[in-house]
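input
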Amino acid sequence: MAKTLISELVLRDGHQSLIATRMRTADMLPICSKLDSIGFWSLEAWGGATFDSCVRFLKEDPWERLGKLRKALPNSRIQMLLRGQNLLGYRHYSDDVVRAFVQKSAANGVDVFRIFDAMNDMRNLRVSIAAVKSVGKHAEGCISYTTSPVHDIPQFVMLAGELEAMGCDTICIKDMAGLLTPYATTELVTALRAAVSLPIHLHSHATSGLSAMCFLKAVEAGATMLDTCNSSFGEGASHSSTESIVAALKGTPYDTGLDLAAIQEVTAHFTEVRKKYWQFESAFTGVDTRVLVNQVPGGMISNLSSQLKELDALERMDEVLGEIPRVREDMGFPPLVTPTSQIVGTQAVLNVLTGARYKSVTNEVKNYLLGHYGKAPGKINEAIRKQAVGDEEIVICRPADLLEDEMNRLKADSETFAQSEEDVLTYAMFPELAMTFLQERNAGSLKAEPLLTREAATTAAERYAPNEFKVTLHGETFHIKLTGSGHHGEAQRPFYVSVDGISEEVVVETLNEIEVSGGKGNGKKKTSEPKPGASRPRPSHQGCVTTAMPGTIVDVKTRVGDKVEAGDGVLVIEAMKMENEITAPHGGIVISVHVKKGDSVAPDETLVEIQILE
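output
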């Protein structure tokens, strides 16, 4: 009989950590029968960022994915990651939504619910744990492990005792950033084993290169369950490879009893699958001991890399990683795990890209500072709180106690496009995103983001001009970098460029186009008829409202003729999955609004124009 139980993470956390959660269901299903036969204690396959990614990028119904996996894995426990009162979104939901989500997840195939709270505020776990127990499923309560001046082992032991009292079946040490060291693992597991009677499950990312040693020390200290990931998506920001841990423990008192040859068949499948997702590969796939300082978890590293690449700012990753600990300290040392990792990380990006700390503050940071996510572990920087939220009242009760039941309203709001309660819950997680997704699904027009072959990408690169170059004119050389552009196809298309570090706008009027085939310059020439359409104006005075980051307009809060005061919210933009309220730089009268809900916007565009009153 196996002495150490293994949870395999390749269907969720592995690809979340290394390819920004982009693996499609079609690439999972062919190997499920083999995964199902190996004898893992559980297969983590749902929750975390998979729900968001399915809707946002893959255009797959996440509930349909769960149903397909349930059918393909009849003998396995399917495990999901649930963020307590946050569920799978980025805010707290009312208790009736939490209960409905757990009930539907269980009905559609989830057996094990790993439940955590980013703040380790146990008040935020109570309802979800009770909901899991009420449907007869396995509740695994998490301690979000971190290090800081306000975290220590006695505190973690106290949290474990509370989880046991709530009725959890197992306790998970969730070391999402790979901060555990071998001897700290021994000390923590030993203390937990002495304090609680529940099995201890260790989850530790390999980012710092220490996780395999921590696993060995954990089982020696009495942990009986380990999280590993198939080597095809293992190591680095992911987890210790399943094959390596199985081999290391074979023939010892901690033997997993798993067949290494069978696992390697899974490896062969996913090694080939991974090649398809090369465009989403994280640049941070190896050992990175900086995590011991910046504490950025594996899944966040992958997504942060992807997001900075989209912003054409990947070269500023080191600056962002340096800013994250400072933002975390300002916010009272929360463990960095979704949603706090995204909240802290996005604010750090804003601080770096705008060139001024907290010049732009996301709505999620404001809500955090107001206590809407729970009690911060340490002391919040009061100057930053004052700057961000002024004198607004701080929440000291369980945040969800302030929320009215939401399900009836959500059903009413989504009745024109939701076809099931599962659809309503998808809408609850991401209202704007889900509405578009469900409408497109109903119309049969869903289209996933493309998976480019390397050959196609090479051909595309040969067809288009470089975005950074030097131009010599009349003996003077200028360094030019393209930072953005208007929509392709416009007759007069603005290009935003940096000329020797100074932002400029160049308007290019298309008279004709040459289509280049294969990069050989022998394509056909075609004329282009002028097309109507005007770009947004560039900021020209202090009343122009702009955004610091590219994103999507999710709310327009003002109209032409409105009187606004400096600091009033005029727009809400979504960037990096976080909402950021854009405020009026000065008081005055709104004289033009150049955007509408759903528009994509870029820096150096005037979104709203205000006539400043003297």
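quick obs: Residues 260-275 form the longest helix (16 residues).
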